[in-house]
Amino acid sequence: MTDKTLRMLYIGLNSKLKQGQVYALTIEFHGDLSEGLNGFYKSRYTTSTGEERIIATTQFEPTDASAAFPCFDEPAFKATFTMSMVRDKDHISLFNMPLKSSTSYGSNGLILDKFNTTLKMSTYLVAFIVCDFEYKQKISGSGTRVRVYSQSEQVEDTPFALDAAAKIIDHYEDFFQVAYPLPKQDLVAIPDFSAGAMENWGLITYRETAILYKDGVSSDKDMQWVGVVTAHELAHQWFGNLVTMEWWNDLWLNEGFASYVEYIGTNFIKPEWKMLDQFLYQTFQRALVLDSLSNSHPISVPVSNPAQINEIFDNISYDKGASIIRMLANYLTDGIFKSGLTFYLKNNSYGNANMDDLWQALTQADAGHGDTNVKAMMDTWTLQMGYPVVTLTKDGNKVTATQQRFLIHPNGKASTSEFKSPFDYQWKIPFTYIQSDGKNDSMLIDSHSVDITLTGSPTWIKGNTRCTGFYRVNYDTANWNALIQQLGTDHSAFSSADRTSLVDDIFHLARAGHVAQTKALDLSLYLKKERNYVPLATTISNLGYIGEVFIGRDGYKLYKQYILQQLSDIIDEVGWNDTGTHLEKLRRGIVLGEANSCGHEASVNNSRTIFYEWMTKGTQVSPNLKYVIYCNGVRYGGEEEFQFVWKKYQDETVASEKRKLMAAAACTSDAGRLKRLLEWSTDESKVRSQDTESLISYVASNPNNGRHLAWDFLLENWDMLKKRYAADINMIGKMISKIVSGFSTQEELNMVTTFFTTHSTKGFGTRRIDQSIEKLHTNVDWMNTNEATVTKWFKDNVNPDKVPKMID
């Protein structure tokens, strides 16, 4: 008997089993190569000569190993695996372990490959591939053979990932004080792949965008992505593979840890990228946004079937997990944290563990130092969802710090959540602060309210120094005013991280009604002075929320004028020469992108000129300016420009370039072309199945009614999309989230809620849908409360003489 919900086979016996007796169970198993992106499946690619080639590859996490071979498909059932594969002579086969022998098989030219037996490991980490790929190889400092495999025509795009992988393996061996346990580490670029990458032990699989970097074609942002994903998957080889969670409720132990350590690994190979600073913008803020919803979930969450397991592969498990581990590392100090990790890995090697085992190891490492009860502190962060806002009220030299749960929509449905807090939404908070005179201190806030006595006579106090804690900080009006004045006078008095947290905190506090929205806008006036990538990107992103919900409203033009007024100096400074440091190139991309999307005439004209040089003469476009130029060529062009970019997308073989061209096609201002893109998004002769969600999301981001066109497409194709992505429920959830994120009227809210009330979403990312509807409620309430006030603020603070000339 089979249970389709649990994906289990039940075998009934006629009599009781006798203790000590050996029984043999034989199961006849037959499986075909899947046409989806899970289990043992087909992937296709086309050579430069137009020849289609097929490879076979695997994706087993979380519960699809049983689709390829009979097994107890649970992480705690570890075993050793011995693999033999039969292939033809034009292909190679790959497995978790090195090849042991190859011999002829039969009389028709087939070859039998036998591999060394694996170490004890979980089923979801087993992987095997049959392909015609080539590779480049390095040997790590400790002797591990490292190879990167790809299509033969792309093998010259593998050296960056190869060099990064070899160096990161050496660094992690030093960081963990545990040797890499396998003789080899293969990294393979897969043409069709649902996730970004998969940490199969010794045989990591990647999307091509996450491992291939083509010098002169790919951008610095593409290179950074390759470095980050490589560092993430290699971190798993220890944390997840060598030691594995007992059950999927502790998925965050795998993913949260790797999502933190990826920054350490990437920072090691490229310190000039300042990845530990970028953590705030790339990971920390995403976690805060999702976990501010009443429809969030605890990091450690009960799951009992594959649909529930798939649903927790989200920003809570990855990004919040990373953020609270980073918070703990800063609280314990790096030396104690690393010692605790070494204890944990050595004590649990080749076995399974839960988060209490990690807390015990870290407590052991801290003994005699801070003597922290790590479990008592961290349970408040893992067993209840959400996070606190710490409000500081200053009265002379006394500051009262009060904590409460932060909800972006305080009038939402928190009380009806399926999860109840065992701590009444109180946290043990590693709280830090700095004063205007440079003095700083720290403490553990473990009650609702505590008093702090300041030394000296500071004009302001700033909480969460360097933004290491997973919480927001609010202040009384006088302190906010002093902080805003300091930013306006000399913003360098705060570190980059502190400026970043001030901006992100006040804008989200304003959205939740803790402070006036105009107060957040007052703080944004300092943007004219900001030149550091992370706080600059954070400010633009937070202002971008207003722009998104203002689309189609009277205040939208004023919003764009304000953005250009505040960025006018830096637009001129960054220029159009693709030069400078890595962070300067990232900064140029975000500044010019914002300038063009807001209609900055000089930028639009410049990007269109470069576009036409490329289209008519084949002039090379600088890698870090490509998306801005491609997008504006299509946005302000017609059918010819649109077709040119789409044809380039169809013909392109470099995955990172292909993604930019796809996104640029969705910049068109014509509704008919957007509808065509939506139709093409599910045509596998034009768009890979793995990229459907991305193309629909790109269309939804188009301010020219793109989100309504995408919504209509989703409704018309709901049943087809559910069937197509039945094995990857997060795909549909991501589409819905992107489509409805900019809706902001009561009519749109009614439209969305009516659809999901009348259509079943069981097993298809229900929590993501609930989160999307909650965000929509937030948008509607925000607009009702703030639209008139914010529009007036823009009118009062936009000086027409300081706004660069714009294209309507």
Explain the overall architecture:
Strands 10-11-12-14-13 form a 5-stranded mixed β-sheet, with helices on one face. Strands 21-18-17-23 form a 4-stranded mixed β-sheet. Strands 5-8-7 form a 3-stranded antiparallel β-sheet, with no helix packed on it. Among the domains are: 2-245, Zincin-like; 248-382, Neutral Protease, domain 2; 681-803, Zincin-like fold (Alpha Horseshoe). Helices cover 46% and strands 15% of the residues. It has 808 residues and is α+β, with helices and mostly antiparallel strands. The protein contains 26 helices and 23 strands.
Task: Write a concise keyword list for the protein shown above.
808 residues; alpha+beta; Neutral Protease, domain 2; Zincin-like fold; 5-stranded mixed β-sheet; 4-stranded mixed β-sheet; globular
Summarize the SSE layout with pairings:
Elements: E1 2-3, E2 8-9, E3 39-46, E4 52-59, E5 84-87, E6 92-95, E7 99-105, E8 110-115, E9 128-131, E10 134-139, E11 145-150, H1 159-176, E12 184-190, E13 197-198, E14 203-207, H2 220-236, E15 243-245, H3 251-269, H4 275-291, H5 306-311, H6 315-332, H7 334-348, E16 351-353, H8 355-366, H9 374-382, E17 388-395, E18 398-405, E19 429-435, E20 440-445, E21 449-453, E22 461-463, E23 472-475, H10 477-490, H11 496-511, H12 517-524, H13 533-550, H14 555-574, H15 582-597, H16 601-617, H17 626-635, H18 639-651, H19 655-665, H20 671-680, H21 692-700, H22 706-716, H23 718-724, H24 729-740, H25 746-758, H26 766-797
Helix pairs in contact: 1-2, 1-3, 2-3, 3-4, 3-6, 4-6, 4-11, 4-13, 6-7, 7-8, 11-12, 11-13, 13-14, 13-15, 14-15, 14-26, 16-17, 17-19, 18-19, 20-22, 21-22, 21-24, 22-24, 24-26, 25-26
